[in-house]
């Protein structure tokens, strides 16, 4: 293939595979490359708050129909919840079929302290920030979404005099899009460094004892991506699946290598806008929200790890246990932050609720990153699929261009 014809997503995938190979061959020594990956993650994180504020304010200010905003929001949240529920159920089915916890030799792990389930009321109240600047400095996505949407709506209410301000927000958001574009050019090298680091650090040997668990998580997430998102994209979004994956490949690869939905957000937004043709009014709201509350891969993982724990310790699960796993698995994925390892911390909540031993956390932690990468990729793909489908039903999706489909 001619080098000049390589598209960015080709280069990112090549970086991913080469990094993996280099890490396996070179071993732990290759972890010196990690700063090249960290640099990329920092660049992505740097853009999150400005992207959110500018897009959401400009997006909300341009909405003339408040009813529509409510309807779109309802559809997005409803689909996020439904897909998460399906994901937990798929996780349970796969864990029961593959039985990742049977026949595993374990050393006695350290004791782990559980995390309490957050109260839903205080979680909701907390969405309203007491201090906007503090919310921004701490990258509190839900709080930023709340304030930015509110400000955008108020700018629209001010009317004519607010027009120049809205225009400034729009121009600045265009500048942010350019910035994301430039940063993404560096992605193939960063992805190489991150993959080499992971493969060099963990190696194949370390993964073997828990290989069945890793395979269960990968398979369950892959089926969820193909079947559930396949349905959403094809039936609700009326778009070809291959086209959807090709357009989302950059974000998926960045998610896989960084294991952070929040850090991937700039890449996800770029894919939805440029490649999938979703309008700013929909993705500007649904993707930041999705990166925070929609984590299907994480919920699948919670269910699998809970059942893994029961199998490992020879505990029989009753219907009550399964109900607890489904409920807390869903809540834990909503509550998990979009950062590496958040799902593992939230797992303590699921295990506590289901009355399972927390010692399993120590065992899972050793290989958590490997599973984190795939579940994060699933999380991000889910955000893009739901965004595309909701945009299509609202007439906020560009017609399929020939060039995009090829
Ligand atoms: N790393 C995941 C994410 O950012 C969260 C998790 O640990 O499951 O989406």
Tags for this model:
406 residues; binds aspartic acid; 76% helix; Proton glutamate symport protein; 18 helices; mainly alpha
Describe the structure.
The protein has a domain at 75-119 and 204-405: Sodium:dicarboxylate symporter (Proton glutamate symport protein). Helix content is 76%, strand content 0%. It has helices spanning 8-26, 34-61, 66-98, 120-125, 132-137, 141-158, 163-184, 187-207, 211-236, 241-258, 261-275, 280-293, 296-312, 319-335, 342-353, 360-365, 368-393, 402-405. Helix 10 packs antiparallel against helix 17 (368-393). The radius of gyration is 21 Å and the shape is globular. The model has no long low-confidence stretch (mean pLDDT 88). It binds aspartic acid. Aspartic acid binds next to helix 15 and helix 17.
């Amino acid at each position: 293939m001619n080098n000049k014809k390589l598209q960015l997503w080709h280069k990112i995938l090549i970086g991913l595979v080469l990094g993996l190979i280099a890490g396996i061959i070179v071993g732990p020594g290759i972890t010196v490359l990690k700063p090249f990956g960290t640099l990329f993650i920092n660049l992505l994180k740097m853009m999150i708050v400005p992207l959110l504020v500018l897009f959401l304010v400009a997006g909300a200010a341009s909405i003339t129909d408040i009813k529509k905003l409510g309807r779109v929001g309802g559809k997005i949240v409803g689909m996020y919840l439904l897909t998460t529920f399906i994901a937990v159920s798929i996780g349970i089915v796969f864990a029961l079929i593959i039985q990742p916890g049977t026949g595993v030799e374990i050393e006695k792990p350290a004791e782990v302290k559980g995390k309490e389930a957050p109260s839903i009321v205080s979680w909701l109240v907390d969405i309203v920030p007491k201090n906007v600047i503090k919310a921004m400095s701490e990258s509190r996505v839900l709080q930023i979404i709340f304030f930015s949407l509110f400000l955008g709506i108020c700018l629209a209410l001010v009317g004519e005099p607010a027009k120049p301000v809205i225009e400034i927000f729009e121009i600045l958001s265009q500048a942010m899009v350019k910035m994301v574009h430039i940063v993404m050019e560096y992605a193939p090298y960063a992805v190489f460094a991150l993959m080499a680091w992971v493969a060099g650090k963990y190696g194949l040997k370390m993964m073997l004892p828990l290989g069945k668990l890793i395979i269960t998580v990968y398979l369950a997430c892959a089926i969820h991506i193909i079947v559930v998102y396949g349905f959403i994209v094809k039936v609700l979004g009326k778009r070809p699946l291959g086209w959807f994956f090709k357009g989302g490949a950059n974000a998926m690869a960045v998610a896989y290598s960084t294991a952070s939905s929040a850090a991937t957000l700039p890449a996800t937004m770029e894919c939805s806008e440029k490649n999938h043709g979703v309008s700013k009014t929909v993705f500007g709201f649904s993707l930041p929200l999705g990166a925070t509350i929609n984590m299907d891969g994480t919920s699948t993982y919670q269910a699998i790890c809970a059942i893994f724990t029961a199998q490992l310790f020879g505990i029989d699960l009753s219907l009550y246990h399964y109900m607890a796993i489904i409920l807390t698995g869903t809540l834990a994925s909503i509550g998990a932050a979009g950062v590496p390892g958040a799902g593992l911390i939230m797992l303590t909540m699921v295990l506590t609720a289901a009355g399972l031993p927390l010692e399993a956390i120590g065992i899972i932690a050793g290989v958590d990153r490997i599973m984190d990468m795939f579940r994060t990729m699933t999380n991000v793909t889910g955000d893009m699929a739901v965004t595309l489908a909701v945009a299509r039903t609202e007439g906020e999706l560009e017609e399929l261009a020939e060039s995009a489909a090829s």
